[in-house]
Amino acid sequence: MTKTSPDSPIVVVTGGNRGIGLEICRQLVQRGAQVILTARRPEAGEKALRELKSDRASFHVLDVTDSQSIADLRDHLQGQYGRLDVLINNAGIMDDEDNSGLDVGTDVVRETFATNTLAPLELSQALMPLLRKASPGRIVNLSSGLGAISSMGAGHPAYRISKAALNAVTRILAAELDGAVVVNSMCPGWVRTDMGGENAERDVSQGADTAVWLALEAPTDLTGRFLRDRQIIAW
Ligand code: NAP
């Protein structure tokens, strides 16, 4: 088992090889966290790890839609650290740019749901015994304003449905865990990444900020909420 300082939170980040996920990893190691950067493609994950240039970060392969891959990560964390302080469910896909709710294929909805909704749920379930050993453990779900029911509108049907349901996962788990592990959703804003595109208004540093704050610094009585820019927003 790896010796880590009790003050050094152990954080898993999914989809850590690029975009907001990689920036979250960068900010976490800068703040002294022990980061397990995960990615589904080993070469991309190892490359991202080298970019971090930090001995506080390590790489572990994880395809969030693969139950065996999730079990392998759980076993690795159990053997290496014996606990987990934070799970950041960042990996996500948006494959419905050209679709409306009236024409989107159910295969696209199903695939988007598997990555954006079911994977965070399954990871939360699988890693819960390790998160319960932290005081308290934290789960941060990268959601989106496009998933807010209060401002739900046209376009991006699969993505919107998946993120609205992810927000439901956040609220259900937060209620059931009752503070033993805190669970929040956050929206990074519109961020310049492969997903957000070059016209987006924010850089990755702004996009990662609230996730990192929720992971390390937010008050532990803040749970079951939806946030942007460290502020609670409407579901
Ligand atoms: P991105 O640049 O497209 O990166 C997505 C990441 O998710 C990549 O690392 C990708 O890995 C990974 N991923 C996808 N499917 C995966 C799987 N099955 N297993 C493991 N990893 C997988 O996206 P981003 O802009 O950084 O977005 C990060 C999160 O923020 C997402 O949840 C997104 O919905 C949310 N968000 C983004 C914006 C925005 O404006 N960018 C706005 C609101 C919310 P590969 O490299 O292997 O594909």
Q: What's a concise summary of this model?
A:
The chain is an alpha/beta fold. Helices cover 41% and strands 15% of the residues.
Rg of Cα set: 16 Å
Shape: globular
Calculate the mean pLDDT score and round it. Answer: 97
Helix content: 40-55%
Q: How many helices in DSSP terms?
A: 6
Strand content: 15-25%
Structural class: alpha/beta
- Segments where pLDDT lies below 50 for 5+ residues? none
Instruction: Output the helix-strand order.
Output: EHEHEHEHEHEHEE
Bound molecules: NADP nicotinamide-adenine-dinucleotide phosphate
- Side by side, the strands of the main sheet go 3-2-1-4-5-6-7-8
Strands, total number: 8
Q: Which sheet architecture does the biggest sheet show?
A: 8 strands, mixed
Spatial gap, N to C terminus? 41 Å
Q: What does it look like?
A:
With 235 residues, this protein is an alpha/beta fold. The protein has 6 helices and 8 strands; from the N terminus they run βαβαβαβαβαβαββ. The termini are far apart. The model has no long low-confidence stretch (mean pLDDT 97). Residues 14-15, 17-21, 39-41, 44, 62-65, 90-93, 115, 142, 144, 187-188, 190-191, 193-196, 200 line the site of NADP nicotinamide-adenine-dinucleotide phosphate.
List keywords for this structure.
single chain; 235 residues; alpha/beta; 8-stranded mixed beta sheet; 8 strands; binds NADP nicotinamide-adenine-dinucleotide phosphate
How would you summarize the topology of this molecule?
Layout: E1 10-13, H1 19-30, E2 34-39, H2 42-52, E3 57-61, H3 67-80, E4 86-89, H4 106-131, E5 137-142, H5 157-177, E6 181-186, H6 204-216, E7 226-228, E8 231-232
Parallel strand pairs: 1-2, 1-4, 2-3, 4-5, 5-6, 6-7
Antiparallel strand pairs: 7-8
The structure holds NADP nicotinamide-adenine-dinucleotide phosphate.
Residues 14-15, 17-21, 39-41, 44, 62-65, 90-93, 115, 142, 144, 187-188, 190-191, 193-196, 200 line the site of NADP nicotinamide-adenine-dinucleotide phosphate (NAP).
